[in-house]
């Protein structure tokens, strides 16, 4: 078998980004860490760590790191069956989640579990499943509805988005109505290249592809703040803007035309026993914040 | 000279991530876009675009993209001196900014300018200057205090951070005081591998390197939400937590020991004339939100 004390050193370097911090975490000297990584690299005949600020993994290094993390997870479920539990640090769950879920309900799910540490990867709901497919996370909040190989898939409901802008912004750009002509000139917010929500909604509402001028803002809260500040309109999760809408600080461009994005919790079956509490918490909190999925969407 | 209609097609593909959206933006067909990129690649003898969802740049493609964007910026400052202004889209400014500045004051600066579009790259304040050094942005909010080659550097003041947690969290983990022993066991929040703020503050307060169990949360607002939910303690920007502190929803672990992070606005000199309004707005909004930098920090 592989040398797991060497692999633990590798995991600690990649988790913390430095040999010094890895040494602190494992209560050894940095030179001991350095030697273990070197031995591992010599034995496998391949570079595993790109030395830098921070240290990052090569492709093989990343693969080994995933393996160590998975073994640690399996070990933690083993502990529950042992008469004497060896002392161990809480297990870290690496999970891919979309930014808007993190901004609205996912923290509550994390907080209602105990004894886990979370390492969150943020990615678009249309792309978070790829992390799971690549084996880089043990679970994902995703728009991908069919189970990924080796995973269980739970429906969570839909996150409702409202196209929102400030009243001043609407007076300036949509004074003559929300027409194609106006939309093509009015600055619009976009999270990043992966964000299709504004384009999808415009297609749904106006039945056409438009390409408005864009502000690129990769943060859920910044999206709301930018709408409040009158920089542009954007698709904001209802839970983040409901108070602003009620107070009139934001208005819905088309109040009766929200965009519902169905979300799913997919989790690796091999660590199901460890993830049980987390899955329960995720399903519970999602049901409180998300809306039921419409099976027959309006045409 | 290079063919700028071909280069515009390249820029549109890389900005929007797809040939279809680039075509919409330039009012041509996707096959026209495809042909321009192909001609450019054939002429230069190198692949420029990695076709995918989204399309991304090769190294040479990225370099050309930066060049086109810079030419567009220079052109926009030329327009001010022309008797007849050619019709053109608003200019997009690509700027690197740290997440906590975006969450606290940067949106206000953006909103107090007019006629610009913003394309924000989020990175740690200790790393945002690298974007500028690589020529991938025209300006950066950074902790880097010496002017980067070809750039002007303005001091902005310091963003004040407070080590914060919920009262329930403190009762559970720090009931016997904020000792090394307690800190080594109490879950701590960290933004990502680049985030040194918690480690720096622990070093300042306890005079020692500690490695607490970590939750990894790459979002400014999630950091505050996680502190409120009792998941861990973390260094939060004072403007984001001041109301929670006053209302008792959060407490400062050491009220008299904040961590001040001096920030600077560095901007490429070649586009100074275009960036004038933005620089003024940035300096103005920063002065309202940041604290004066202490020249002789307490030992």
TrEMBL record, chains A, B:
NCBIfam families according to UniProt: argP, PRK03635.1, PRK13348.1
Give the matching PROSITE patterns: HTH_LYSR
Please give the Gene3D superfamilies that the UniProt record associates with this protein: 3.40.190.290, Winged helix-like DNA-binding domain superfamily/Winged helix DNA-binding domain
| Domain HTH lysR-type: start-end pairs | 2-58
Superkingdom of source: Bacteria
Q: Does the keyword Transcription apply?
A: yes
Is Transcription a UniProt keyword of this protein?
yes
- InterPro entries according to UniProt: ArgP, LTTR, LysR_HTH_N, LysR_subst-bd, WH-like_DNA-bd_sf, WH_DNA-bd_sf
GO molecular function annotations of the record: DNA binding; DNA-binding transcription factor activity
Keywords assigned: DNA-binding, Transcription, Transcription regulation
**Which Pfam families does the protein's record reference?**
HTH_1, LysR_substrate
The name of this protein is LysR family transcriptional regulator
Entry's family note: Belongs to the LysR transcriptional regulatory family.
């Amino acid at each position: 078998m592989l040398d797991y004390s060497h692999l633990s050193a590798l995991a600690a370097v990649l988790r913390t980004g430095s040999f010094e911090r890895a040494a602190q975490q494992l209560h050894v000297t940095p030179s001991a860490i350095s030697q273990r990584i070197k031995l591992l690299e010599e034995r496998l005949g391949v570079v595993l760590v790109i030395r830098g600020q921070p240290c990052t993994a090569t492709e093989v290094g990343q693969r080994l790191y995933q393996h160590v993390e998975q073994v640690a997870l399996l070990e933690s479920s083993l502990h529950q069956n042992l008469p004497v539990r060896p002392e161990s640090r809480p297990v870290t769950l690496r999970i891919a989640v979309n930014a808007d879920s993190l901004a609205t309900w996912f923290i509550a799910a994390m907080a209602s579990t105990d004894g886990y540490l979370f390492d969150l990867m943020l990615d678009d709901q249309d792309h978070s499943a790829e992390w799971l497919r690549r084996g880089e996370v043990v679970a994902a909040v995703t728009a991908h509805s069919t189970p990924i190989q080796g995973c269980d898939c739970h429906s969570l409901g839909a996150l409702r988005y409202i196209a929102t802008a400030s009243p001043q912004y609407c007076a300036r750009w949509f004074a003559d109505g929300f027409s194609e002509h106006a939309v093509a000139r009015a600055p619009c917010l976009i999270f990043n290249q992966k964000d299709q929500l504004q384009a999808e909604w415009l297609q749904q509402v106006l039945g056409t592809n438009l390409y408005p001028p864009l502000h690129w803002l990769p943060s859920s809260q910044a999206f709301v703040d930018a709408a409040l500040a009158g920089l542009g309109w954007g698709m904001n999760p209802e839970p983040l803007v409901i108070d602003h809408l009620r107070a009139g600080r934001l208005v819905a461009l088309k109040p009766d035309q929200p965009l519902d994005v169905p979300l799913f919790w997919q989790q690796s079956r091999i660590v199901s026993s460890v993830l049980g509490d987390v899955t329960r918490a995720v399903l519970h909190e999602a049901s409180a914040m998300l809306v039921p999925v419409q099976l027959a969407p309006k045409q």
